[in-house]
Amino acid sequence: MHLAYPAVLSALLFCTGLYGVLARRNAILVLMSVELMLNAVNLNLVAFDVWLSRAAEETLHSGQALTLFTIAIAAAEIGIGLAIVLAVHRNRGTADIDKLRDTAEGHESHPADGSDSDALTAGQADRAGKAEASA
Q1: For residues 101 and 84, which has the higher predicted lDDT (pLDDT)?
Q2: 3-state secondary structure 87-119
Q3: What backbone torsions phi and psi does residue 45 show, to the nearest 5 degrees?
Q4: Separation CA 110–CA 107 (nearest Å)
Q5: Under DSSP, is residue 26 helix (H, G, I), strand (E, B) or coil?
Q6: 64-100 pLDDT per residue, tens
Q7: How many CB atoms lie within 10 A of CB 37?
Q8: pTM for the whole thing?
Q9: Which of 39, 61, 41 is CA-nearest to residue 52?
Q10: Of 131, 134, 111, 112, residue with least CA distance to 121
């Protein structure tokens, strides 16, 4: 088989995974897209290993060995990633990445009545006072 076929398939898989990472808002779908990208890399590693082993007299199959390590890392990554997503979903009630990003950055809703939004809230002033006292 020619090298172009698995290379084109790998490029299509990688582009599909990249689109999934950039366009999706659900954390589980983003993890699935990352796995798709890793599988595209694995396909490239095996295809180039087979292609290079035809040219060399002694074959080490280093591409296939690296693929096994990549699969092991991907399995660990998806296990830890799903555990984190499930824990966040239990605490926050959503797996939407945009909503989680807003809560992580500390965006607070500003009052709609036009009051001074630059003034410190009571919690922020208390934290600032504790920080100055400890310094």
Answers
A1: 84
A2: HHHHHHCCCEHHHHHHHHHCCCCCCCCCCCCCC
A3: -60, -45
A4: 9
A5: strand
A6: 999 999 999 999 999 999 999 999 889 888 888 888 7
A7: 19
A8: 0.69
A9: 61
A10: 111
